[in-house]
Amino acid sequence: MPSPRRNAEVRALGALGVSASSSSSPSSPAHGGGGGGRFEFQSLLSSRAPGGEPPAGARLRVSDSPVHRRGSFPLAGAAPAQAPPPPLPEEGRLDLNPSFLAIALRSLLAIDLWLSKKLGVCAGESSSWGSVRPLMKLLEISGHGIPWLLGTLYCLSRSDSWAGREVLMNLLFALLLDLLLVSLLKGLVRRRRPAHNQMDMFVTLSVDKYSFPSGHATRAALVSRFILNHLVLAIPLRVLVVLWAFILGLSRVMLGRHNVTDVACGFFLGYLQYSVVDYCWLSPHNAPVLFVLWSQQ
Ligand SMILES: CC(C)=CCC/C(C)=C/COP(=O)(O)O
């Protein structure tokens, strides 16, 4: 008879489409992640340290084991039951927290994929909102790295005030930092773009085959925060800047380029990046070489 707690675990895993096999041979494909969902179940009930011993905090109590349960209800002719072992100390009991965290993450990921597919209404010409796709692609170019880099360089070359040069120099630094960080993260995480995405983007880097985090979302958050802090704009224009960033992020999911979490984390990262740029703010005092070099162009 499985314990109620064990039943609850199996039900929770079942809800996630995870197999509830209890075979735990270390050489079986299920062991060590080979079997996808089965691995989750293994880690929940029989996580083992490399030496074969269960790690502390991940052991089943002896009283829960099938062997012991057989001993509790001896069949006719079976050896008499042994005396029950003393209860294990607290740290020897089954610790479910790590696996529940894994379940929570898996659920979040499942919701992310489901929602992203639902929102990907402009992913192709034949999608339900396929007619809006050209507009979304225009929005895509408005948040692309190349127009922002070229635009900043152009304005720098035309700027005739030190204050203007300082702001633009820092914007250039912010855009380059963003490209570097996003490329690094994409290369590290290597999350594939959604299956429904058509890879027809304007100029991409090799890491742009990956989707986490969204470079457009990081740029949108970074640039809009930068503009709001360093440009004196009327309220309607400030609202427009925020709207542009938000719609650009949404359009990444609608175009099928990203999952929702790529964009949400992209916004968060871009927001943080601005704080870094603000902290390291380049000025003629702390980076005189840059400004002298530029003024000699
Ligand atoms: C080639 C240069 C300078 C930048 C690439 C910009 C780009 C294509 C980013 C990818 O954005 P998503 O991650 O939002 O798809």
TrEMBL record:
A GO biological process of this protein is: lipid metabolic process
List the catalytic activities from the record.
(2E,6E,10E)-geranylgeranyl phosphate + H2O = (2E,6E,10E)-geranylgeraniol + phosphate; (2E,6E,10E)-geranylgeranyl diphosphate + H2O = (2E,6E,10E)-geranylgeranyl phosphate + phosphate + H(+); (2E,6E)-farnesyl diphosphate + H2O = (2E,6E)-farnesyl phosphate + phosphate + H(+); (2E)-geranyl phosphate + H2O = (2E)-geraniol + phosphate
Q: Which SUPFAM superfamilies match?
A: Acid phosphatase/Vanadium-dependent haloperoxidase
**Bias-annotated ranges (Low complexity):** 12-30
Gene3D superfamilies listed in its UniProt record = Phosphatidic acid phosphatase type 2/haloperoxidase (1.20.144.10)
Q: Where in the cell is it found?
A: Endoplasmic reticulum membrane; Nucleus inner membrane
Q: Which CDD domains match?
A: PAP2_containing_2_like
Q: Name one GO molecular function term.
A: sphingosine-1-phosphate phosphatase activity
Q: What is its EC number?
A: 3.6.1.68
| The entry's keywords | Endoplasmic reticulum, Hydrolase, Lipid metabolism, Membrane, Nucleus, Phosphoprotein, Transmembrane, Transmembrane helix
Region described as Disordered: spans on this chain: 1-91
- The UniProt record lists the Phosphatidic acid phosphatase type 2/haloperoxidase domain at 166-278
Q: Per its UniProt entry, which superkingdom is the organism in?
A: Eukaryota
- Residues crossing the lipid bilayer are 168-189, 226-247
Top EC class for this record: hydrolase
Q: How does it sit in the membrane?
A: Multi-pass membrane protein
Q: Which GO terms describe its cellular component?
A: endoplasmic reticulum membrane; nuclear inner membrane
The Swiss-Prot or TrEMBL record describes its family as follows: Belongs to the PA-phosphatase related phosphoesterase family.
Which PANTHER family is this protein grouped with? POLYISOPRENOID DIPHOSPHATE_PHOSPHATE PHOSPHOHYDROLASE PLPP6, SPHINGOSINE-1-PHOSPHATE PHOSPHOHYDROLASE
- Which named protein is this? Polyisoprenoid diphosphate/phosphate phosphohydrolase PLPP6
**Species name:** Pipistrellus kuhlii (Kuhl's pipistrelle)
